[in-house]
Amino acid sequence: MPNTQATTSLPSSHTDATISVADGMEASVRLYGSKPRGEVCPLVVHFHGGAFVAGDLDNGCTVGSALAAAGACVVSVAYPLAPENPFPRPLELGYAVLQWAYKQRAKLAGKGAPLYLAGEEAGANLAAGVCMMA
Question: pTM value?
Answer without folding.
Answer: 0.90
